[in-house]
Specification:
Layout lengths: L12 E10 L2 E2 L1 H9 L6 E2 L12 E2 L14 H20 L10 E4 L7 H11 L6 H8 L3 H7 L3 H10 L6 E3 L5 H14 L5 E8 L4 H9 L29 E9 H6 L6 E10 L12 H13 L9 E3 L6 H15 L6 E2 L2 H4 L6 H15 L1 E2 L22 E2 L4 E8 L3 E9 L2
Parallel strand pairs: 5-6, 5-7, 10-11, 10-14
Antiparallel strand pairs: 1-2, 1-8, 1-9, 3-4, 7-8, 9-15, 12-13, 14-15
Helix pairs in contact: 2-6, 3-4, 7-13, 10-11
Pathway: Lipid metabolism; fatty acid biosynthesis
Pfam families: ketoacyl-synt, Ketoacyl-synt_C
Organism: Falsiroseomonas bella
Amino acid sequence: MSAHRDHKGRPIVAVTGIGLVTPLGVGVVDNWAALRAGRSGIRRISRFPLDHLRTTIAGTVELPNEDTGAMCSSQRVTRYATLAAEEALATAGMQRGDFPGPLMLGMPPVETEWPDRFRIAARIAPTPPLYPALTEACTGLESLYRVAAFASVGEKLAERFGTRGAPIALSTACATGASAIQLGVEAIRRGEAEAALAIGADGTVQPEALIRFSLLSALSTRNEDPAKAARPFEKTRDGFVMSEGAACLVLESLEHATARGAKVLGILRGCGEKSDSFHRTRSNPDGGAIIKAMRNAIADAGLEPGAIDYVNAHGTGTPENDKMETLGMRAVFGDACPPISSNKSMIGHTLSAAGAIEAVFSVLALRDQVLPPTINHEEPDPAITLDVVPNVARDAKVKNVLSNSFGFGGQNVCLVIGGAV
């Protein structure tokens, strides 16, 4: 078997660049230092009025010299993704305007937000909002169209970074970032590209999204102490904390990376996905899709479960998710479960960005042989008998990491990442 081919004869996929934007800061160095220290990025929302809201906390990204609160969600997605990609390309030693492969962008669905809806309504008042009137009111609002068109974010990024071919923008709920990475891996494995730019980004901390999740009883209401609100796997957990950010991974075939003398940060050894089509927001209680996604990823990597040294959990902090992930872990690993921890205890749930952000943190865990902690673990849940790396980071020998992303509607993607060769 070639040194550049995996157990199935496919090109080995290397990670040569990483970039991060989260509520903990901009850049890999600041993010990783904060995560290892167990520092929370959750804070009281200052972006919009909080009157009558049950949840008033989130993981917002504050950029130096920029008022991100004045941007709409897709503008924030574009800005966060740009910053993450610029850092990843710099890490990989690549030129910004000439990337030798496609862009795979994981992002939330774009919709018209309330300020723009009010603008449209003002143009038709007092006319009843019939379809012809709405159509006429939108005439001339080209700026709104450019912002809201789903493909526009990917097109802007592709033009900026000089990626090849049509950019792919996708959304698979909370698995979106991991799905973008999987698409990049598959394109390289098929020989269709030598490299891929995989980005997961989200900027939807805005009133309507917050209210929607609140109506689902999915959000924590521990408003009095924001840093203590996200409590994955802990007995008193009461929901996730909505957040935002972005991550970018430069993926290359190992042969391409070696030929240009790039430093390899990690290897994308396996991808696994499985959906259950059970419910719009809930997973099937039997955990079948979660279990299968983990097993598929491990098998795709050519490994046995015992070769996984650490699991970067989906770990949202909702009562149901953490129980389901525990069930899946026991089904896959039996009584020999590896340590598992949740970055969301510190950065919140970054939704469409989560799978990519957590993949970057997995690469860093492999690089430094350190397991980031699950903070706010004060009262263990008797039903969760896993080693969740409570409260304090831990030195450990790590060769392979399983990174889990379980999305609304039963969309599940898992990645196996190995250390640099």
